[in-house]
Design a protein that fits this description.
With 283 residues, the protein is α/β, with parallel strands linked by helices. Helix content is 41%, strand content 17%. The chain has helices spanning 2-6, 8-15, 52-55, 65-77, 83-90, 99-108, 111-116, 130-133, 188-202, 214-231, 237-244, 262-278; strands at residues 32-33, 39-40, 58-60, 94-96, 141-146, 150-154, 161-172, 178-183, 207-210, 249-252. Strands 5, 6, 7, 8, 9 and 10 form a six-stranded mixed beta sheet that branches. It is elongated. Pfam families: Integrase_H2C2 (PF17921), rve (PF00665). One of its GO terms (molecular function) is nucleic acid binding. InterPro entries: Integrase_cat-core, Integrase_H2C2, RNaseH-like_sf, RNaseH_sf. Residues 131-283 form the Integrase catalytic domain.
Length: 283
């Protein structure tokens, strides 16, 4: 009855063993009439071990109420499963036109699924800081962070031992360029040595952004002590003006707020992604 109402022309032509029109939306399914007078999907599965219903499911219109009822039945039978599983189960007996859209439209109106999968609120992001959008020299504004520790094989082939090491990531906030330094521990002294190597390669930063790690806080305090000593050299205006133009401003993000350092956290993630694939088990 449903096929007679939705596909009257195709049903009449197939009953007369004639070809259906080229503009028919079911032409690509190679339809045929079975012994019960139902339109089924054709195909090339004649020699398959599947059942006749699985090889040639009954053709159904996608928007008919019967199709929606069948989809609801399978949805409840499969314990409110997703659209892919429902469509796969349905196609073992029936083939709805535009089945994926038909299943999605029914599941979209399922009250049980709606209650258990509500749409969460999305935080609107604030404006980007000036350091992120102002053109500047590479590493003029620099974010710094550490990766987790790695076990490095140190020594010759027979006497190698595992040594714990860390990676210090320097990322430019304007260009997103990344510089990596290998360090042995998380002390302030080790970080200052890595920072000296970084400055020797990339030039002096004017603004540094980090979290509140003890090594970063210690490095900041050491620099402040040096600036205080230099400030006392005001009797020589020439040296004082030179050092004044090379003072580094250190910016700390709020405590226990790593999301404020998304730029360098993303750089750490990207570095780990490539390191694990290239180095693998060599370290």
């Amino acid at each position: 009855m449903v096929q007679a109402l939705e596909f009257p022309v195709e049903l009449a032509l197939l009953c007369q063993s004639k070809s259906i029109h080229k503009n028919s939306n079911i032409l690509s399914l190679d339809p045929f009439i079975d012994k019960d007078g139902l339109i089924r999907v054709g195909g090339r599965l004649k020699h398959s071990s599947l059942t006749f219903e699985q090889k040639h499911p009954i053709l159904l219109p996608g928007k008919h109420i019967l199709t929606k009822l069948l989809i609801k039945h399978e949805h409840h039978k499969c314990l409110h499963a997703g659209s892919q599983l429902i469509l796969a189960r349905l196609r073992t007996k029936f083939w709805p036109i535009n089945g994926r859209n038909a299943v999605r439209s029914v599941l979209k109106n399922c009250l049980t699924c709606f209650k258990t999968n509500p749409k969460t609120a999305v935080q609107k992001m604030g404006d980007l800081p000036e350091s992120r959008i102002t053109p500047s020299r590479a590493f003029y504004h620099c974010g710094i962070d550490y990766t987790g520790f790695y076990n490095l094989k140190d020594g010759k082939s027979r006497t190698r031992t595992l040594v714990k090491c860390y990676l210090c990531i320097f990322v430019c906030l304007a260009t997103k360029a990344v510089h990596v330094e290998l360090v042995s521990d998380l002390t302030t002294e080790t970080f200052m040595n890595a920072f000296k190597r970084f400055v020797s390669r990339r030039g002096l930063c004017r603004h540094i952004y980090t979290d509140n790690g003890t090594n970063f806080v210690g490095a900041h305090n050491n620099m402040q002590d040096v600036y205080k000593i230099l400030k006392n050299l005001n009797d020589n205006e020439k040296y004082y003006n030179y050092f004044k133009d090379h003072i580094i401003e250190w910016h700390f993000i709020p405590a226990r707020s790593p999301h404020f350092g998304g730029m360098w956290e993303a750089a750490v993630k990207s570095f780990k992604h490539h390191l694990k694939r290239v180095v693998q088990m060599l370290v």
